[in-house]
Amino acid sequence: MDQLIPVKDFISGFTTSQYLCHEKIEQVALEDKQLGVHKVWSKLKHKLVQPPPELPKAEQSPCDDDGSPLPAPKHAWEALYPEGSINPSGEIPGGFGFYLSGPPAFAKCLESASEAVFSYRMMIQEGWEWVKGGKLPGVFGGNGDLSYGCTGGRQEQRCQCFNLRPMWRPNSVGELYAYLPLTTENRDQLLAVPPRSIENSDYGFSVGRDAFRFDRAVGHWIAVAFRIRLNDVGCTNGELQLWIDGQSVIKADGLTLRCSEDGKMKGMHFQTFFGGHEKDWASPKDQKAWFADVSGVIIQ
């Protein structure tokens, strides 16, 4: 449980993992209707499949962490990245993209929540080629419909949305790709996250680059979990945190995630693709990844 829900205290939650049992967590199926999936990118599919078995694990030293105490999921959403595919608007689209708010009871509670955790497990295909990088599912929020599309270099009305997605770079280097309101305090706090953070011209921030790596996901399930704490309006006390297999790898505080009381946590931006926008970001061959055990809890 610690990998998917790496906090001890919470009010309520949901999970699609059949192995995660807790009196405050509702178990639901990995199905669009039950998870409040909406705004699905029409060109891309997220088929529900039986994922392939994990690769045999290499012998580990006593200090190594298995990182996956739960049995492998029996069902998962499959993402296909065809050869030559790049971002969802590219000539050859790949991956998939949609938003989800969780089961109805959870989505209702989320409307007034100030702090929550969202998580999932993922596995990528053996022989994966990283190329220049790509995006993975994350979390989003903001003011009503303005919370959507807080990506792709958006500059307008940035005070009314936030979007946080993991990203892989060459050789499996990981980071958190962040779109937050464009304030001086946010810039300073994000750029201070070790080991390296970068402000990308006209795009988001690469936060904590090389704080972790995704190579462990090749042929094996890993857990990715996010914690978001909304700031009190007028204060810079927002927080974000990322865990990989229960280990905290990126954390930032002193943030502004919203500029008015209309700013809410909305749920997960379940999007993945190679890119970047240029062709040298494209997948060099057909590749696949699988996503399962989607979960969320409300802390307060």
Short summary of the structure?
This is Polysaccharide lyase 14 domain-containing protein. The protein has helices spanning 32-35, 104-110, 184-191, and strands at 12-15, 25-27, 37-38, 47-49, 76-81, 96-100, 115-124, 134-135, 138-143, 161-168, 173-179, 198-199, 205-213, 222-229, 238-244, 247-255, 263-274, 287-298.
Care to describe what's here?
There is one protein chain. The chain has 300 residues and is mainly beta. It has a single domain (39-54, 72-298), classed as Jelly Rolls. The protein contains 3 helices and 18 strands. Strands 1, 2, 4, 5, 7, 14, 15, 16 and 18 form a 9-stranded mixed β-sheet that branches. Strands 3, 6, 8, 9, 10, 11, 12, 13 and 17 form a 9-stranded antiparallel β-sheet that branches.
How is this fold's topology laid out?
Blueprint (H helix, E strand, L loop, with lengths): L11 E4 L9 E3 L4 H4 L1 E2 L8 E3 L26 E6 L14 E5 L3 H7 L4 E10 L9 E2 L2 E6 L17 E8 L4 E7 L4 H8 L6 E2 L5 E9 L8 E8 L8 E7 L2 E9 L7 E12 L12 E12 L2
Parallel strand pairs: 1-2
Antiparallel strand pairs: 1-18, 3-6, 4-5, 5-18, 6-17, 7-14, 7-18, 8-10, 8-17, 9-10, 9-17, 10-11, 11-13, 12-13, 14-15, 15-16
Key words describing this protein structure:
300 residues, 9-stranded antiparallel β-sheet, single chain, Jelly Rolls, 9-stranded mixed β-sheet, mainly beta
- The total of helices stands at 3
Radius of gyration: 18 Å
Structural class: mainly beta
Tally of distinct domains: 1
Strand content: 35-45%
Low-pLDDT segments: 60-68
What's the helical proportion of residues?
under 10%
Broad shape: globular
Query: Which CATH architecture is right?
Result: Sandwich
Distance between the termini: 19 Å
Order of helix and strand elements from N to C terminus: EEHEEEEHEEEEEHEEEEEEE
CATH topology: Jelly Rolls
Organism: Cyclocybe aegerita
InterPro entries: Polysacc_lyase_14 (IPR048958)
Domain Polysaccharide lyase: 75-294
Protein name: Polysaccharide lyase 14 domain-containing protein
